[in-house]
Amino acid sequence: MRSCPVCGALCPEEAQTCTRCGADLGDVPREMEGTVCAICGYRNPPEAVFCEQCGARKEGEVGLEEAAGAPPEPGMPEWLREVQDLFLESPPVFPETVWEERLRLEALPAEERGLEEGALPSSPEVPIPPFEGVEPEATPPEWGAPPSPPEAEIELAVPPWVPLETEAPSLPELPPFPEVAELGETSPVAEALFPGEEAPRPAIPPFTIFPPEEEAGPPPPMEASSPVRDEMEVLPPPWPEGEELPEWWKALGLTEVPLAPGSTEEAPAQIPPRLVEGIPEEVTAAPPTTPPFQLQEALPSPPPEEVPPLTDLEAVLAEMPEWLQILRPVAEEGGEAPAEALPSLQPVMVEERGPLAGLVDVLPRHPRLVEVQGPPARLRAERIPELQTRAEAWRSLLAQGLTFLIGERAAEPAPAGLAQAVERWLLFALILGALILGLYWPLPFFRPDLLTPPVAFVAALDEAPSGGLALVAVEYGPDRAAELDGFLQGVLQRLSGRGVRALTVSLTPWGAAQAASVVLARPDYGQSVAHLGYVPGHEVAVARLLSQSLRRFSTDYAGRPMQDLPIAQDFGEEPLAARVSLVVLITSSPDALRGWLQQAWGILPPEVPVIAAMSAGAMPYAAPYQESGQLRAVATGLRDALLLEGEVLEGSPAFFDLQAQALLQALAVALIGVGLGAGLFTVRRKEG
Amino acid sequence: MIRRVVFTGVLSLAILLALAPYLWPQPALRQSLTELGSTLLAYATLVAFLAFLEAHLRRIGLRGEGWPYSLLIVLSALAVLLLAVGEGWLRGSGLAGPWMMWIYQHGVLSLEASLGALLPFFMILALWRRLRTRPSVEVLMFTAGVLSVLILRSGGTSLPNLFGPLSYAVIDPLITGGVRGILLGVALGVVILMLRIVLGLDRPMGR
């Protein structure tokens, strides 16, 4: 199996085209441009931000898009845009530079590093310049880390139910609660980052996570931040005091010493005032209902008068802005969509990334939204079973001949036993004998007087006015010619005998060829019968044909100009539907019947009758249209075709044809009875 | 996103435009739309033929499984195509020329008729072997269907007269109701599919 480069569907190795989307699998280069969507597997152009098939946002494109200065989504509130700018899905470019800078410093010798450390400004006293529209975090975002308190709320408090330890750094072992660590008046991480202050590196995680409740069984969502703690254990040496800040850091307008990745205590000092001012009052002022930890000696939050008021429009858009809808995952195409991507009325969504990590149902799925972004439909051409069967039969027959010609060895069928071979040849002999018997010997049980002709069908043919125009649609191929050619010949003979002109046409090439084999051989061709040939367009061509003016039929199927044929001497600019007085459909396909009836409805005048001559196998599909009146009459099978000419005389070719058919039917009935009896006898004997 | 909206919008407009002549009769618009659809389908057929040739030529080049069949198919298709084009060029008759009609009468029609003549043998053999297996509900239903068709269509015998009332009372309503249900389901499905495409809920081109 190999996957389609376009839609990602698994296709067999020998397939030339994709079974789902029809893409060519042969010309797939080894290295294709573009990126594959993680949701649906579609290969998108490299510059695409959203998947062109499912609309999902590609990973890592947010930060790049923002860094490239892409314009924001129109209609997005200002404060929401700022929040989006701050909480990116992927880390921006410059935090990686920070990390590389730290690695470079670690690789330097101690003396050389000391020189650089001496140049580093150690400066808590250095004033923080105003933020100039750059990301505040100089470290890769750790989404699992607890939310950082504001600048004035650095000092954390220990909940009353947690035993307090005042000298946390000197503790040689972990506290009773692994998740709990207490802090002094200053953050040990902030001290440990600068060796000049001689603060020993704590053996505990430098930040504190308190579970919301002590008796909580499962770990809270913040437990997802375990990678952060792992990263803290391998924390590189702190930034040397006095070391010069990088140029890019100064270019950002920041004078604070950058922190190590994962240390979030000092991060609030870098939060720009614009964020504090941009967040709505409800977000900053309202305390959480179940705070994960409590603050001690917290300074008052920024004055509320600095927060811009939230307008009604922003409040409405904040429920589900458009850019968030785009970010939502969509179901994979077709029936291969994962179960979690399918619509669910009451889903439980746990945010795994971003600043909302660990929260449940922050943006609950709306059923309508899931329906909108559901799997895309595809219009596919269904294989016609009849054609498929014929093709397979041809392949089977050709395989037996071509293996001899080209020397290719075909798979040998399983050897059949003697009993099965005898059974097969006995059945074939019975069928052949019945056929020969019915074709050449009159049998006593067959009575032609019991044959009932298709009275309604013949009556509809006889209702066509003399000198009128009848349209005969030939929608069958050579495989049904033995059954339906009789209808075509009988209809044309009966119409021409009454002076009704007939135009034959087909929506299929083989139907046109089949009609030509019958129509072009008639002596009255051009006088009362003409063959228009193949009209492309399948069902669409019905409306086109009926609404086309008669003068636009320039040539017949043989290429002769229609003006030269006597049948078309009075053809003018009027459409065919206005001149035709009878429509006869001769078909073996239920689809062709349905297409003609549905497309001709509304174009043909209601008084124009439509009758159908069909193969016996398609007879049930004509019954609903006949009861509704869309079909005036239906004739089916070889029997009705032979009875179109009138009474069947004993000894005529039609008599023997009908007798042979009746004898084969009787043989089939007898074989059914014998087969059922033999099967029941075999089962009873095995059980006994 | 924009491309998706554009594709969906164009498709919805095309569907609404095609529906307009039915809601508000405009013969000229309807005629032009059907001409356009027929022309597109004709070009699609041409493209399908080229794709067919390309697929088989690739298989021949790679010596893939069944490449002799591909070779035979390509040669046959090209021979018939060249013959039809040449005959149309020389005689102006195209598909209805004497060469093409000879191929159809003595080649295609004969082979298809012989293939169809084999079907009764294989079908009766399959029916016989199926009936000799353990009887089940499917076998009984299949047998009842075949029997009813054979008996009711046995022209020239008294069987249709004997079982005619049974057919009118039981079988015909079942057949008509079942087929009508299928047709209604197809129609409803088409309407719903078009509505979803018009409203942009489905993207048939996958974009």
Distance between the termini of chain A: 49 Å
Average predicted confidence as pLDDT of chain A: 66
Number of strands of chain A: 10
Morphology call of chain B: extended
- Oligomer state of the chains in this structure: heterodimer
**Secondary-structure content class of chain B:** mainly alpha
Word description of this protein:
The complex is a heterodimer of chains A (688) and B (207). Chain A is built from 23 helices and 10 strands. Chain A has helices at residues 61-67, 78-86, 93-107, 110-118, 188-192, 226-233, 247-251, 273-278, 281-285, 312-317, 322-327, 367-372, 385-406, 418-440, 455-463, 481-497, 509-519, 540-546, 576-579, 590-600, 619-628, 637-642, 653-687; strands at residues 2-3, 10-11, 35-36, 43-44, 469-475, 501-506, 529-534, 580-587, 610-614, 633-636. A 6-stranded parallel sheet of chain A has the order 7-6-5-8-9-10, sandwiched between helices. Chain A has a two-stranded antiparallel sheet with strand order 1-2. In chain A, helix 16 packs across helix 17 (509-519). With 207 residues, chain B is mainly alpha-helical. Chain B has helices at 2-23, 27-62, 67-91, 98-131, 137-152, 159-198. The longest helix of chain B is centred in the last third of the chain and has 40 residues, at 159-198. Chain B is extended, with a radius of gyration of 26 Å. In chain B, 12% of the residues are buried. At the A-B interface, helix 13, helix 14, helix 17, strand 7 and helix 18 of A face helix 1, helix 2, helix 3, helix 4 and helix 5 of B.
Task: Draw up the topology in text.
The complex is a heterodimer of chains A (688) and B (207).
Chain A: E1 2-3, E2 10-11, E3 35-36, E4 43-44, H1 61-67, H2 78-86, H3 93-107, H4 110-118, H5 188-192, H6 226-233, H7 247-251, H8 273-278, H9 281-285, H10 312-317, H11 322-327, H12 367-372, H13 385-406, H14 418-440, H15 455-463, E5 469-475, H16 481-497, E6 501-506, H17 509-519, E7 529-534, H18 540-546, H19 576-579, E8 580-587, H20 590-600, E9 610-614, H21 619-628, E10 633-636, H22 637-642, H23 653-687
Parallel strand pairs in A: 5-6, 5-8, 6-7, 8-9, 9-10
Antiparallel strand pairs in A: 1-2, 3-4
Chain B: H1 2-23, H2 27-62, H3 67-91, H4 98-131, H5 137-152, H6 159-198
